[in-house]
Structures are given as structure tokens and as C-alpha cells.
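Hi support team,

I submitted a single chain yesterday and got back a structure, but I'm not sure I'm reading the C-alpha cell output correctly. Could someone confirm the output below corresponds to the sequence I sent? I've pasted both exactly as they appear in my results page.

Thanks,
R.
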Amino acid sequence: MAFVEPRLLSVLRGQTTDRPPVWFMRQAGRYLPEYRALRAQAPDFIAFCLNPEMAAEATLQPMRRFGFDAAIVFADILLIPGALGQEVWFEPGEGPRLGALPSLDSMRERTAGAGQALSAVGETLSRVRAALEPERALIGFAGAPWTVATYMLDGEARTIGKGERAQARTYAYNQPDQVDALLDILVESTAHYLKMQADAGAQVLKIFESWAEGLPDDLFQRLVMRPHKALVARVRELGVTVPLIGFPRGGAALAEDYAQAIDVQAVALDTACPLPVGRRVQAIRPIQGALDPLLLRAGGPALDARVDQLMEAWGQGPWIFNLGHGILPDVPIAHVEQVLRRIGAQ
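Hi R., thanks for writing in. Yes, this is the structure output for that exact sequence:
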């Protein structure tokens, strides 16, 4: 049988395919009844992520139902703090909580072992790769240093402005040396974590910068650009050759600068990215995105119209169809199928 390269990998090499490859952030999740049934069997969310059999099943569920062009390993960006010695747990109905931040020295001692500490994720990737058809790509991922740092620094804080990572940003201003040192620790530990994922079978690695939004340009340079550049360089130093996707969510105003400066193979764009900006980024590197998850929830003619608009604007260049953020728990399954039919993927 002739080898068929996954569409996603072709696009990441700069090619324009017959139709854009499609996958959705958080495609394994609460909008699927089979996911909810599986999740109910785990004692808590972290245990669920670190159970290779269950995490592999969660990863494969949307592939069976929808036939996406890529699977993304079921895990969480907050596994790294646990590998560095910080307590992490999820309050039902509220989200993540983190304990006291360990000392910088104690975390530095754990950086090189972060991949081994999270080897359960590697086993999940190996299980999924063995079950996936060869034409479907497998994506590994990690949270970007600044995004992970915001949770590590905020901990259990419930301050006004928490949605803007107010406490972490304040630390970045008034404790710059400590924050920069934490980012360096996260660069090193995340590089080892991503190498482990590539070794386990991930064909693409994605860097999720979920909290690039709202940063002034000087802080964006320091907290996003500098760590991303260092992380990509360190991953390559460790011998990883698979393509990387960078996702500076909320940073559309600086997306072209990001694409020029960071040696990723594609830039993921968020919901608010204007179509002309996407085209300018696409002239530099392949792009991914950027359907509004709320429109996916709404469905109907407006959803078809926006899919057509994205196809017209970005479909003539290397582009991965995705959402601008993660799929919402109450999205109807029929709306996902509507999008896949519209772009010719189902």
C-alpha cells in the first residue's frame, strides 16, 4: 500500500492540500456522551489524565465519531507544575487550584526529569499512535511557560481581574527576576516533556499560550516571545525534529511579529484575529484557526457562512481548520458534523 502523508503534516511543510486538514481544540471532552461516561470512572481529573488506558480512549473517541485529520493527546497543561513539585488539583465546577509555589532551586532540580515524571502521557501517545490510521496525525502538546506560570503564581487566588491573570502580571512587574527565573525553569522542563512526547509517537507538538491576551507589547516580548524562542531552541537541541505549532491566543495584534521571530512551523490564530491579519501571517508561515466556538454552539446558516468566509480568505494557502479556542461543553454534535460537511471532511 502506498504511503499517504497526513494532511496536517503536508500543511506544516507549507503545502496547500485539496481541503484544509481539520481538528478541534478540546475535541475530546464533555460535549461527547461517551467522554462523560468515561470521565465518571476516574476518581479525579489528574488521575484521569495520567491513566494511559483511559486517556487514550478519550483521545480516540472523537476520531471514531468524526474522523478528524488529527488526534491531540488527552492531557492538561497543568501536569508540568505537578512534575515540578507543586500540588495541583481540580475543584469540581470551579477549575484548577494549585498549592504553594516550591522554591526555585527545588524546581530546577526536577527540570530534566519532567518527561520521565509524566511518562504516563507518553504511554498514552504510544497507545493512540498504534490505534490511529496512518493518514491521521497525532499531536502532543504543552502549556507555554507564561501560561503555566500564571497558574503557578496565582495558585488559589480569587482576585478581581483573575481572568486577566492579574496577580501573575503584577508579579511580572514587581518581582521580575523571580518571574523570569520561573519562566526559564518552565522552558527547560517543558522541553524535556515535549521531547518525551515526540519519542513516544507525537508527530506534531503544540505550544499553548492561552494567556497572551491583554499584554502590552513590552510584556509580550518578555513573557511570550522570549520564552517561546528559548523553548523552541531547546526542543531542537534535545534532538526533536517534528513540527511545532505556536498558539499565542489573544495576541493577534502581534501575530506577524510572532510568526517572524519564532521558529515554529505554524501559527495558530484565535477567534478575534482579523482575516487580513491571518492572510499576512499565512504569507510567513502556515496558519491554524480560527472559528468562534460560540458560533459552533449556535449553528445554523451563520455557521455555514463563517466557514465559507474562512475558506475563501485562507483556503488558498497552507491552513489548518480549527477553532479559535477550545470546543465548549454544550456544543451540539450535529454542529460539529455540519462544519465537517461544509469543508468536505465528512
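A quick pointer for reading it: The chain has one domain: 7-342. Let us know if anything else looks off.

Best,
Support desk
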